[in-house]
Amino acid sequence: MSSGKRQPEQPSRAHAQAVWRPTDLDGLPIDPSERARNQAAEQTFNIRIPKHYLSQIDWDNPRDPIRLQTIPQAEELLFDPRELTDPIGDRAHSPVPRITHRYPDRVLLYPTYQCAVYCRHCFRKESLSDASDQFSEELLQPALSYIAAHPEVQEVIVTGGDPLILSNQRLTYLRTQLEAIAHLRMIRFHTRVPVVTPQRVDQGLVQALKGRLMVCVVTHFNHPQEIVPACKDAAQTLREAGFVLLNQTVLLRGINDDAETLKTLCRELFYTLGIKPYYLHHCDLTRGLTHFRTTIEEGLDIMQKLRGYMSGPCVPQYVLDLPGGNGKIPLGPSYTVGKEGHSYTFRNYQGKVCSYQEVVPQNPPVKQSDPQSESDASQQK
Ligand code: SF4
Known about the structure:
The chain has helices at residues 32-44, 51-54, 65-70, 125-130, 137-148, 168-179, 193-196, 203-209, 229-240, 259-273, 296-306, 371-380; strands at residues 17-19, 49-50, 99-103, 106-109, 155-158, 186-190, 214-219, 244-250, 276-281, 317-322, 327-331, 336-340, 343-347, 353-357. The chain is α/β, with parallel strands linked by helices. Helix 6 packs parallel to helix 8 (203-209). Iron/sulfur cluster binds next to loops.
């Protein structure tokens, strides 16, 4: 690990944590031999599990999907030399502190490097561990000035850390600062708060986020077990505020790497919460995530079992974020079998091979009789 683990800050009452330091794990029903095995990982990485999320763990199941996402595991310290500390080039594309500018019309803004939960699979794990500073109006000024000086930027993706752990007062400050930049059109918040502390989502939060700009909230649900009535209430509050709701899921071995789990998750997201499944991320090349990473081939096989078997809006886009900040690549099984001129052969979702003749404008235009009118005319005779 680079600069080592920072001291956890005492969480505020609004984000009451059940676990926020290794000794808090002592009170959980974890086998002592497992604790001993995982001790080095507990000491190395941030730990935080809010009460709500912790209460969803089934301790009788050692493979419980929430347990696996939150309780440190020894495997996190097994680094493959091909893995990366900055897996998608956040730092390589950072022109000023707290900004990543990878794509022309949008930037990432990091108002905090703290989260409501620290996920074992986090791709920014080492940035979060390295964070020495937190929210401050002064620290944000260079980032806000950078956005103001770049009229091509239309959308600000507020991420972190998790921006929704900030107080309503700080969120209001951030929102009004962004609203003052005339060329901005949307603020997008990336957050796990509606998953892990859904009680935080209330009218106070809505008022802090709502203003001149269109607001999009991108949640991060990974497993259907995470979706409980409190999440439904949170999603409803955000929907009724008029916010656009999307979800991104990380494909994680042993947690959600099967089509049936993902089908249930995506249907629950769309039909119960009204949240569009947006991305299914192939697990990044973050150090220490080998145990969570599937192969791309496995991911493609899962996608083949989703498309066509679920309503279109329920199907997320499977994506790979290229190292070095080279952007996202949509991954998907190919449905094109062959092409000759304007004749295509496709395989449908059931594996049936179908041909398709593309109709393209002719040059020069050829006047053709309309077979339907001719047939109508002959019937009238
Ligand atoms: S909430 Fe997001 S940024 Fe925070 S630890 Fe989890 S995955 Fe990482």
